[in-house]
Amino acid sequence: MTALELFSYLDSFGMLCLFIIPYGLGAGAVDAELNNYVALHYFPVYELVSFFFGLRTIISPYILSVALTELPVGGADPRLLVEFRQ
Q1: What was the pLDDT predicted at 61?
Q2: What letters, b where the CB count within 10 A reaches 16 and e where it falls short, cover 21-55?
Q3: Which comes out higher in pLDDT, residue 65 or 9?
């Protein structure tokens, strides 16, 4: 979203890449600090959430590949099937 907003103001793709670097670093810093806070204050919940996130990232491609190969061409959207099952 920020990239699209910047792209509307800037004329070149190179300037867009240059300005996106600080935005990415800022977002990474906020994410790291939030993870640190949750890990320090809500440790059991954080471990559980991390476990299920890892499990989901391992299982989702398998579910999607099965959905793409097994569903008929005119059937439901496979992404919705994965989202529903998770």
Answers
A1: 83
A2: eeeeeeeeeeeeeeeeeeeeeeeeeeeeeeeeeee
A3: 65
